Fold each of these.
Amino acid sequence: MAEGPEATGPISEPTRKERRFLLGTSIVLLAIVLGGVQPTEISALGINFTPTNILALRFLLFAVHSFVLVAFLIAALAERRSWNLRVAEAFRTREARINSCFSHLTLGNY
């Protein structure tokens, strides 16, 4: 199994969960806006929607989607930067190991 920052990937599991939630809210919003899907009631909660409530529900979904989008972008950018630094450090460490293996070889020895 591979080791190092390349094996873990640039984002963590909580950020992946945010990404999945963002995808879910995107699909719901696309279904409502482009598909014309409008819930009239949620029977499990006993909620009936009027046209005003549907507008409020759209606004609430958009607000939640915007919040999750901003939270995901902040987390993903921070984790990507951290991952880039770990990859660069792993590369420098690998280069240092390679150089130390061949440091005793000089043209004067041959």
Note: DSSP finds three helices and two strands in the chain.
Amino acid sequence: MSTESFSLNRSNVPDASEMRFGVIVTEWNNDITDKLLEGTLRILKENGAGEHAITIMRVPGSFELIYGCAEMARHGLVDAIIALGCVIRGDTPHFDYICSGVTQELAQQNTNGKIPVINGVLTVNTHEQAEERAGGKLGNKGEEYALTAIMMVDFAWALQK
């Protein structure tokens, strides 16, 4: 799916005023992840989430998101977790190992866990591509991750009724 053609329908976003969100952000590439965080927080708040309902924690890098998300979910203080990171391809296979490990484990947490975990890890070839997706010409993916989290909490709650 092309980034340019994708857009979540913002007209029917559920009210997030009763929802609690955890946002785990990597320090690595923080010039990008801080912008993703800004977009995420903006959308959560625009849709009703209060400051008190958003817990932000930081981890060193994208691989550490695995532990951070698992622990936050285990403590049961939030209804969804948004994992924000950025991995930029380099000259070694490290990129492939990190991206694969994080993707597989976050998928596993979604399969076996009790709350949605949103994979907000940008995986790009260049720093320029990351900037384009963190408030640049392709928008801010953090906004999409927040919308997804709100919609997935609503989905989970609908199943409990």
Note: DSSP finds five helices and six strands in the chain.
Amino acid sequence: MQAEILVHAPGRINIIGEHTDYNGGFVLPAAIDKGIHLRIRKNNDPHHCKIYSLDFNKCFAFRLDQIKPSKEHWHNYFLGILQELNKLGHTIQGFDCELQSDLPIGSGMSSSAALECSFIGALNELFDLGLDRMEMVLICQRSNHHFIGVKSGIMDQFASIMGRKDHVVKLDCRDYSFEYFPLQLDEYQLVLLNTNVTHSLASSEYNTRREECEEGVRLLQDTYPEISLLRDVNIQMLNSQRAHFPEHIFRRCKHVILESQRVEEATSALLHQDFHKLGQLMYASHHSLQYDYKVSCPELDFLVEHSRPYKGVLGSRMMGGGFGGCTINLVKKESRSSFVADLSLAFAKRFGKELSVYEVIVSDGLKVWQQAKV
């Protein structure tokens, strides 16, 4: 009998708190019922590995002693994890695995983070690496930084691994402390509208935004030498230095500071089931992402603006890194059908594209189990 490891790592939604994680701020994500399903087993070869994608009917074969970046982008999510484990002195031997996803790529539901988390979870179990869940999150983040070349925060991987059914998690991205909050929406539900648009700007602009925020910190340190992250800055401090800031740097910093504040207000709104307040915060978040952080796009802006007249819609905003993907919408259940139908028609008329609609269930994070295989 040969041990075979089965893994499910979910994608995530983020209620509010966009582009705050790499600035040490707060985020409010949740794991969802869609994700990556992965099956892995040892192949008794010390070096050779095979990874097969059922969705794309493609096989990726490589040697563990020849890890180097691949021209196929999806390969690098695996290779980066292996490189980080190698740096830590963990021994991995040959394996075969196959994976399948029900997460739409480029939707803002973090299919790439789910891929990383499923893989690290599988390796941890298969080779008895002894990693705890937070260690796995941080290995995935370092892989993004060092191998993928995206200076991401930890929100996506954290939600995928640490998510809890029927809860959102408020994560402090400075010290990694976190708190779960029940997500009880009563007569409302969360509906994702996928523009099915992915813009090539996303990765390069992501790194640019991080550099702009770091520049803002450097400028603020001339007056406030004690700060190290935008998390340490309040809006009064930023406003007091506006004359010394390029306008675009000021706006990037303004978004991050106020967005972290919106997360705090959103958790209070959830505790008090003040869904109208939560919706207002979502609209404010999108406005900031559109005009101050400038990571939206015409398709996302169209959907948010066209949601406003509907009495059954309390809030809408872009979700994820930006330049495409989904809007997340807080919608009254009885209004869902007419809302989706109307926006789908308007969107197709304006852009000549179809929307995809997703209703997600907030679920547990990473699941790993073992079964015997002959």
Note: The mean pLDDT is 94.
